[in-house]
Amino acid sequence: MAQSAAPATGAPAITPISAKALAPWAVFVGILALVLLYFVGAEQGATALISGEGVHEWVHDGRHLLGFPCH
Residues 4-55: pLDDT tens digits? Predict the structure, then answer.
């Protein structure tokens, strides 16, 4: 005789993440997004932190995709 497994009686408990635990990650992601936005949108010309055209070439297509003028 084949034995069948008993059906699951309940879903696992899901505990919510508190805002206090989430806040440092939200700040980190926000700062990372701002740095990325700077490098894609403004890293060239007078405000350049890194000299040369290296950063511009790396983010060139993303710059056009997001609507930033670059040439």
Answer: 666 666 777 888 889 999 999 999 999 999 988 887 777 676 667 777 777 7
Helix axes 54-65, 19-41, angle to 10 degrees: 110
Only one residue has tokens 């710059």, namely 63
User: What is the residue-wise DSSP string for 18-68?
Assistant: PHHHHHHHHHHHHHHHHHHHHHHHT-SGGG-SS-SSHHHHHHHHHHHHTT-
Closest CA to 36 of 4, 62, 3, 69: 62
CA pair distance 42, 24, nearest whole angstrom: 26
